[in-house]
Amino acid sequence: MKYGIVIFPGSNCDQDSFYGVSSVMGAEAEMIWHKDHHLGQYDCIILPGGFSYGDYLRAGSIARYSPIMQEVVAFANGGGLVLGICNGFQVLLEAKLLPGAMLQNKHVHFICKSVYIKTHHSNTPYTNALKEGDILEIPIAHMEGNYYCDNSTYQRLKDGGQILFSYCDAKGNSTDEANPNGSLRNIAGICNEKKNVLGLMPHPERALESMLGSEDGKRIFESIRSHC
Amino acid sequence: MYQAKVYITLKDSILDPQGTAVKGALESLKYQNIPELRIGKYIQLQIDETDLSRAESQLKEMCEKILSNPIIENYRYDLSEG
CB A108 to CB B67 under 8 A? Predict the structure, then answer.
């Protein structure tokens, strides 16, 4: 399988993602420049973490209008897999490929630490190697990860099985203490209705080798591989 | 030429952690009479246009498309020739 990884000005997890999916997971991968107007043949596009356009105005708001994003939106609407990690999640929200918005973290701090997230559904391209209730230890690193949507959107996400991951403690309890950023209902990752677009605040590409503290991120990339 | 001033604020229903932190700082400076403080964005721009209604519809479009995020923010503006 082949990944395409978009580089926006200010992306800083693009090389980590490239290394992770290619050297660790053994997939093919190519970098895609944000000014490109043409998208090659890929099985999955990754919008990586970072600070695209310096997070000016709102995180993801300017990257969303990068030329390549028109192609990414068309790819997603055609059923292609698009994984937005951290800043990539913010770009997906601004591009309206996913519902809701990101607010500043509740305590107005940049948070960089390892957290636990719980899996809610295993019937998606991103979670088929996981079981419902599986707990992953994966790092977060963000300033705006406080997911927000209105009540009717939340209900739609919940009923549609679109909330794939939520912050929890080591035992899987979704408590306020385990919620690092004030995110609505501890939401850490959501997908679209068709389940081909995933936005995830934690960084699975930083949790692929035990020497870095956790290999749990592999489960997400294994899911993508078995789907493709 | 039109001069536009755009004010973007978080919707009332959205918590403003930055505003709450600044309000707390004012309280610690003994300003106890600040029941509410919210932080927004101010954007000043020029629109090279001769017709007011065209300038205004362009400004609204820009506010809704990129300058604000209607899910969490409101916007208002002042627009004047000059």
Answer: no
Q: How many domains does chain B have?
A: 1
What ipTM was estimated for this complex?
Answer: 0.89
CA distance A76 to A85: 15
Q: Is B21 on the interface with A (CB under 8 A)?
A: yes
pLDDT tens per residue across span A165-216:
999 999 999 999 999 999 999 999 999 999 999 999 999 999 999 999 999 9
Looking at residues B30-41, what average pLDDT do you find? 96
Listed residue (A101, A67, A75, A102) closest to A197, CA to CA: A75
Alpha-carbon gap, residue B23 to B29, rounded angstroms: 10
For residue B48, give the CATH number of its domain.
3.30.1280.10
Of residues B14, B21, B69, nearest to A58 (C-beta): B69
The beta-carbon neighbor of A103 closest among B21, B67, B72 is: B72
- The reply to whether A86 belongs to the active site is yes
Q: What residues of chain A lie within 8 A of the CB of B72, using their CB? A: 101, 103, 148
Neighbouring CB atoms inside 10 A of B60's CB total 14
